[in-house]
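Thread: "does anyone have the structure for this chain?"

Original post by V.I.:
We have the sequence but no experimental structure in hand. Need at least a predicted one for the grant figures.
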Amino acid sequence: MGLIYGYDIYVRPRKVAGVLIRLAELAPPTRTVPPLEITLPGSDRVALPFTSNFASDPVDCSASSTLELDMSLMFDADEALREYARTGGPGQDAAGRIPIGYVYATIRFASLLHPGYASVECWAATSAMSRLFARSAGI
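Reply from O.Q.:
Generated one for you, tokens below.
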């Protein structure tokens, strides 16, 4: 069992599509898999540059309480991210960003802890990434 560090973000359910679109903006510009098409509760639709359970098949969450995502995200380099890149992580791009992935996310459309809110729970895939999450202000 490794160290698992993450972030929980709480938003009103109507804001989930916007949060997913913002996460998509953090994805690396090159993709090797097709976009993931998602239908959210309330019929909003988004296409994301991620996978769900490591597949790109369309996901219909209109009658579901959760959505699982597997993401690679780009962050502006800070000292912790530069050190991560120097010690075997992926390199920095021309814009000074460093990709981190896989970052896993579970979207709960109705939070158990905060009624009336949805939660976006993001966590690192490895102990080394968890330590990076804790050290990096950029993440």
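V.I.: this helps a lot. The radius of gyration is 15 Å.
O.Q.: and The beta strands are 6-11, 36-39, 45-48, 59-60, 66-76, 97-108, 118-124.
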